[in-house]
């Protein structure tokens, strides 16, 4: 089944550029645009970015399935996830207030970081614009924001050899700095076969004339803030509700190399017929997750 990059927009309008100087920039087509808004008091808007990231593999035997779960559990333990979230905190320009983390038995981990806006330093213009953000190798620390959380969920099918690993990540900020800055870093930090993303803006702030502003930047799709290599690597579908400031993008990795999905064995160790059967199972699993429905 072919999947193409598509955008479904449920809207009666496209968000118009905001008119209005608390140095808030808006973007057009992913590029920074210098257009300042004069706000009355603090920017009270809350921006939230949610990720569901899936890694899929085939582990034939019960022993291999247990080994995969143990491997992924160690690879993405609470310590590793904490470091990733610290990097995210730096990217969006935030200061860590508190870290709570836990490794679970028999498997799984979670991390929550409370973050706050810096009170003294002014946000740099490149931090205020929603994106695109840096890749992992280009991360640098900046300033100070709300909360960042991650939870991991490894699991296996009881009898067909398919094992999956899901990470749920939420980045929520108040004020000027956008969680979209963490977008590219998070996608490149994990083996992401399937990604679902939701971005929403809630609340309102006011300009100096008292007029409510329900969003402080232009956006038509989360895809606008993805790095070019990510756009080339994934097939994507959008469902956006502009009038509610809700944006949803699903991503499915285009490249399928069977060896990348085999755990505890390799393509050369199995027959052509078995390889074709395994590939069919894996592709079916990935499409079911991508479309959120069973395909029996």
Automatic annotation (TrEMBL):
List the residue(s) that the UniProt entry marks as the site Cleavage (non-hydrolytic).
Answer: 145-146
Q: Which residues form the signal peptide?
A: none
Q: Which Gene3D superfamilies does the entry mention? A: S-adenosylmethionine decarboxylase
**Modified how:** Is synthesized initially as an inactive proenzyme. Formation of the active enzyme involves a self-maturation process in which the active site pyruvoyl group is generated from an internal serine residue via an autocatalytic post-translational modification. Two non-identical subunits are generated from the proenzyme in this reaction, and the pyruvate is formed at the N-terminus of the alpha chain, which is derived from the carboxyl end of the proenzyme.
Q: Which InterPro entries match?
A: AdoMetDC_fam_prok, S-AdoMet_deCO2ase_bac, S-AdoMet_deCO2ase_core
Cofactor note as given = Binds 1 pyruvoyl group covalently per subunit.
GO MF term list: adenosylmethionine decarboxylase activity
Keywords of the record: Autocatalytic cleavage, Decarboxylase, Lyase, Polyamine biosynthesis, Pyruvate, S-adenosyl-L-methionine, Schiff base, Spermidine biosynthesis, Zymogen
What is the top-level taxon of the source organism? Bacteria
Instruction: Give the UniProt record's GO annotations in the biological process aspect.
Output: spermidine biosynthetic process
Family the entry assigns: Belongs to the prokaryotic AdoMetDC family. Type 2 subfamily.
How is this protein named in the record?
S-adenosylmethionine decarboxylase proenzyme
Q: Which organism is it from?
A: Halomonas elongata
Q: What is the lineage of its organism?
A: Bacteria, Pseudomonadati, Pseudomonadota, Gammaproteobacteria, Oceanospirillales
């Amino acid at each position: 089944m072919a999947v193409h990059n598509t955008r479904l927009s449920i809207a009666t309008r496209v968000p118009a550029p905001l008119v209005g100087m608390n140095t808030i920039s808006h973007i057009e087509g992913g590029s920074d645009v210098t257009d300042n808004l004069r706000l009355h008091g603090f920017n009270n808007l809350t921006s939230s970015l949610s990720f569901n990231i899936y890694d899929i593999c085939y582990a034939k035997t019960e022993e291999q399935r247990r080994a995969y779960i143990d491997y992924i559990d160690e690879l993405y333990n609470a310590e590793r996830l904490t470091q990733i979230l610290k990097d995210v905190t730096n990217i969006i320009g935030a200061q860590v207030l508190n870290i709570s983390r836990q490794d679970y038995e028999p498997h799984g981990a979670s991390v929550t970081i409370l973050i706050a806006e810096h009170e003294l330093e002014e946000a740099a213009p490149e931090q205020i614009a929603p994106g695109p953000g840096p890749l992992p190798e280009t991360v640098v620390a900046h300033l100070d924001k709300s909360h960042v959380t991650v939870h991991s969920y490894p699991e296996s099918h009881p009898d067909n050899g398919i094992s999956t690993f899901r990470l749920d990540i939420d980045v929520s900020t108040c004020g000027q700095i956008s969680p979209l800055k963490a977008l590219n870093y998070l996608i490149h930090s994990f083996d992401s076969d399937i990604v679902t993303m939701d971005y929403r803006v809630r609340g309102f702030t006011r300009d100096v004339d008292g007029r409510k502003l329900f969003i402080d930047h232009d956006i038509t799709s989360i895809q606008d803030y993805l790095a070019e290599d990510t756009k080339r690597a994934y097939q994507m579908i959008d469902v956006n509700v502009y009038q509610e400031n809700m944006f949803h993008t699903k991503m499915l990795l285009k490249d399928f190399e069977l060896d990348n999905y085999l755990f505890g064995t390799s393509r050369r160790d199995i027959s052509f017929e078995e390889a074709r059967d395994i590939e069919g199972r894996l592709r079916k699993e990935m499409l079911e997750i991508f479309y959120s429905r069973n395909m029996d």
